[in-house]
Structures are given as C-alpha cells and as structure tokens.
Amino acid sequence: MDKIAWSQFQGLLKREVLEHRNLFIWAPVILGLLIFVIDFLIITSLAEENKIAFVTYLARFFNGGSPMEMSGVFVFPTLPFLGILYICAILYLTNTLYQDRREMSVLFWQSMPVSSLNTVLSKVVTIVLIAPLFYVAVVFALYLIGILWLIVSGLIYDVEVAGLGYMFLSAVFSLPVVYLFAATSALWLLPFIGWLLLFSAFANRTPLLWAIGSLALILFLEGFIFGSQFLSNWIETRSDIDNFLIIEFGGIFDRLFSYDMLIGIGIGSIFICGAVYMRRFVD
Amino acid sequence: MKNLILKNRYTLLLSVLSVYVVVVVIEGALTDREPDLLRFDNSLFTLDLRDIGELGDFSIDL
Fold this sequence. Notes:
The complex is a heterodimer of chains A (283) and B (62). Chain A has helices at 3-19, 21-44, 48-62, 67-70, 79-102, 105-111, 116-156, 162-188, 190-202, 207-226, 230-238, 249-256, 259-278. With 283 residues, chain A is mainly alpha-helical. Chain A has one domain (3-281). In chain A, helix 1 (3-19) crosses helix 2. In chain B, 44% of the residues lie in helices and 15% in strands. Chain B contains 2 helices and 3 strands; from the N terminus they run H-H-E-E-E. Chain B has a 3-stranded antiparallel beta sheet with strand order 1-2-3, with no helix packed on it. Chain B starts with a helix and ends with a strand. The chains are: A mainly alpha (283), B alpha+beta (62). At the A-B interface, helix 10, helix 11 and helix 13 of A face helix 2 and strand 1 of B.
C-alpha cells in the first residue's frame, strides 16, 4: 500500500470513528461511569474496618506476585465492556453499509477515488482493531482510579500498600491481553462480521432481520433437504464461549495460529467479498 | 458466469450463500466436525456446561 492509499485508508478509519463515536467512545465511557458510580456507592456504604480489611486483603493478595501471571485476574472485570463492545459491533455492522445507501452517501463515496474494497475493509478494521482501543482505554482509566483510591485509603488507614504497586502492574499487563483478546475474538467471529456486512449491503430495509432470517432459513433447508447438521455444528463451534475467553498471552497465540481461525477467516472473506460486490447495486 | 452472478443483488446473494454452504458442508464432512458449545477451559478454571447436572464438580485452580 503506497503512501497516498495509506492516508486514504486512515481517512476512512477516521470517518468511521467520527460517524459512530456513540458506539465506540460514548458507550464504553457511559458503562465506565456506571460501574464507577456503583462501586463508589458500595465502597462508601462499607464500615471503616471493612474498608481496611478490603485494602489489606488486596495488598497482600498481589504482593510479590508476578504481574504477568496475575494479570488474568483483571481480565474478568472487563467482560461487561466486551459484552457492550459486541452489542455495539452488531449494531454498527448491521447499519453501516445500509445507512450509506439510505442516506445516498454511497454515491458520494463512489465518486471519490476510494474503492468499495477499501471502504468495506475500513469497516472491518474499525471493528477488529480500532474499537477495542477505546474500550481498553476506558478500562485503564477505571483501574487507575480504583488503584489510586486504594493507595490513598491505605495511606489514610496506615495499611502497608506495597502490594498495590504489584496490583497496578498486573492491571497494566492485563490491558494488552484484553485488547488482543477483543481483536482475536473479532477475528474468530469474522464470519459473523462478514455475514452482517453482507446483509447490511444487501437489504433495502431491516438488515438485521434479513441476516437472522436468512441464517434460520439456510439451517432449516440443510436439515430438511440433506438431513445433515454441518452448518449448525459449525455455527455452534464458532459460538463456543471458550473460544472468546482468553485470559493469558499464550491463549491468544493458540487461538490465532489454529486451523479453526484460518477456516473462519476464509469464510469471513467470502462474505466480505460479497459485501464489496453488493455495493455496486445502489437503488 | 460473472455476468450471471452480478446480474442483480439477489443472484449475488444467492451465489455468496451457495459458496458458503458448499465450503462449510465440505469442511464439516472432511473434519467430521462436532459442536463444542459452552465449554470453558483455561488456566484459572474448567467448566463444561453440557454436564449441567454435575456442577458440583466445578473446580477453581487459583
């Protein structure tokens, strides 16, 4: 990719983030604020001796532990953020190409020296690589506030806070794991991403219904005509939660370099290719 | 062939879905794929929700 093409692609990525900042920026910020308020209310309702016991327990739990090994503990609190990321991703993928056609902005973009392939790829890159960045940034801000509160409380109640330094390092080490977890799971779910993009480019109205209805119809036809369950087996395997849940660096590489990941990327590419060609049909 | 596939949005959709079905069915037949749903297996804990009646065996390896 030459310099001009790269700057064009960057422009497309910026456009996606700016046009969908509610999904990529404000959704995690609002969830973060909600979690902060709930935590704040719980903590302020604790008695003083319980607060001291809480800070002491955390400081002792993390004290001397390897931040790399303990980072797994910090992956679980990010699951609500990843849940919201998946919901926002479904909304984004379902509407993005459909919205372009409905607003007729597709005609403007097709008149620009930007190919449909780059436009669709920018949407895939946005959801796989860019969106998780904002979510991880909000998670980091939450961890930072929480650990600062623990340190200040420890100093006020005269508790040994050295262990909280290890806790901070564990939290920092967990961030790349969470980011790679989100990006890897998005790659794992590339067939779903491609499926939603295909129907977003295809449907004249209610793309989500088209996507769900077509899937149900194909599954029904396979069972009805051939009496087999290869498609449903494949979808069930792809939806296996164990393939989403990665809590250590090793798990990420196991997922990335596997046959199942490769076949998923291949099938996702078929749908993405279909979405690219589908953009030529503008009513 | 290309003209037929790209004739309209419906022929294109049908072609993409046909390729998808063929690839998944062939791959499923070759690998004899079985669904592996709701199984958590990682360094912190192991849980198989298919054995929902044996949840007492849930083990945490912290």
